Amino acid sequence: MCPTKRSIPAGDVMLGLIMDTITGRSPLYKLEKSLAQQDMELLFGRDIPVEKLNDDVVGRRMDALCDAGTGLILTAVAVNAVRRYELERGCVHHDTTSLTVYGDYDVYKDADRGHPFVGARLLNGNESDKVINRHVLSEVAKKCRFITRLPRSSKGCREVVGQAVAQNQWEDLGVISPQRPTAKRKPAHYHGYEGEVALYGRRYRALVVHSDALDKKSAHKLESEVEQEKKELTRGIRRSKRRYAMRVYRTPRGR
After folding, report:
1. Where among 19, 50, 68 does a domain terminate?
2. Vertex 205, ends 202 and 210: CA angle to 5°?
3. Which end of the chain has the least Cβ crowding within 10 Å, N or C?
4. Residue 48 falls within a domain, yes or no?
C-alpha cells in the first residue's frame, strides 16, 4: 500500500516510532539517538543501521503514508489482525477523540479515507459529539443492531430511571465480576430493570442497571457533602453576633 524503492521501508520506520513511543516518546530529531540504545536486529529482524532512521527519513516515510491514506492503512492492519488472531467480530466499539492542531490544513478537508470497522472520520472539531454520534449510529442502525449508553443528561434516560424507581420491579442480576471477594473489597451486586425510551421517532429497549457498590459511594458522597455544609454553617454562626432560635412544628397524624 505504501511502496518505496528506498532501503528502509515505511513499515520499519513506523515500527521504530512505535518502539520509541512505548519506551518514552522522543522528538523525531532524537529518534536516531533513542534507537541507538536498542538491539536493532532483535527488534526489526535484521540489522538496520540506526543512522538510516534519522528525522529526514522519518519525515519522507510519513509523507508517503499520508499519500497512501492513513485510513486505508489502518483498515488493512485491523482486518489482518482480525483474520490472523481470529478475533470476535460480533461487537464493535465507537468512540470520539480530540486532537488539537494549529494552522491551515486544507489537505484534510475531505480526508475520509476508509473505515477501520465503523465510522473512522477526520472532522474539524466544530461539531459536538452528540451530533457526530447521531450520524454514525444512524448509519450503523441500517446494518446491524447496537447497544449504547444513554447520557444522563438526556430526557429518555431520566424518564426510564424514574420508571425503574417508581415501579420498583428489579430483576436480580447477581454478581458479575469473576474476581473473588476479599475482606476489604466485595464485588458489586447488580439489579436490572427493562423499559423503553423514545428517540427520534423510534422506540428502543432500555436497561437500567443498579449497583449496590455505586449506591454506597453515592451515599458516602452525600454524607460528606452534608457534613461539610454543616461545618461551614457552624463556622458562619460562630462568626455572627446574632442569635438564632428554632421552633419545631409537629404535623398531626393522618396529614
Report:
1. 68
2. 140
3. C
4. yes
Report if pTM > 0.70.
no
- Tell me the HSE value of 48 on the side-chain side, using a 13 A CA sphere: 26
Q: Sheet with 202-211: list strands edge to edge.
A: 171-175, 189-199, 202-211
Has residue 179 been placed in a domain?
A: yes
Identify whether 64 is part of a domain: yes
Write out the residue range of the structural domain in which residue 241 sits: 152-255
Residue 232, domain member (yes or no): yes
Strands of the chain, DSSP E: 171-175, 189-199, 202-211
> Number of folded domains in the chain?
2
